[in-house]
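In this supplementary section we document a worked example of the pipeline. Step one takes a protein sequence of length 179 as its only input; no multiple sequence alignment statistics are reported here. Step two produces a three-dimensional model, which step three serialises into structure tokens for compact storage. The input and output of this example are shown verbatim.
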Amino acid sequence: MAGVSTHHRTGDGRVGYPSCCRPPARLLDCFLALALEFLVEALVALPIVLPPTVLGFYVLVALGSQSPLGRWWQSVTGHTLAFTFTGLVIGSILYSLPFAVQPFAASFSSVDRKLLAASATLGASPLRTFFRVILPLSTPGLVTGIALAFAHTMGEFGVVLMVGGNIPGVTRTGLHQRL
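The serialised model returned by step three reads:
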């Protein structure tokens, strides 16, 4: 049996899955990719179903000085993210993310695959294809996503109140002054 190999050799000489395991491995790869995609979509859509103050509280916990992200940020910059303008921006981006991501994804997926294949055939790199083919054809969806996210952020106050607080000269908004 010295001449019989049960492993699949790839084009660059690496040994891949054994031939008997390839179909289950592909199934597992496909399942994991779908599960990961579902998880990412669920996390991105979470701000749609959570009340703004609850999301603000979660962002505050995630950015606080006791969290790994908060400790890392504090070691790099010397200050915390909570109750700062940077923290406000991060909270607002997270709150409005689904309103931008959904039009972006729809716009990117509507690009004709034949155009991507033609670009690859002509020797364009994936990055060049993105900037020269996908991005220009997706402009209406990108503008829509940006406009929706901006409008949604402007009308939101719960995350701002929770993450930014009411610190005069730092995070106080015009609405804080009227309340």
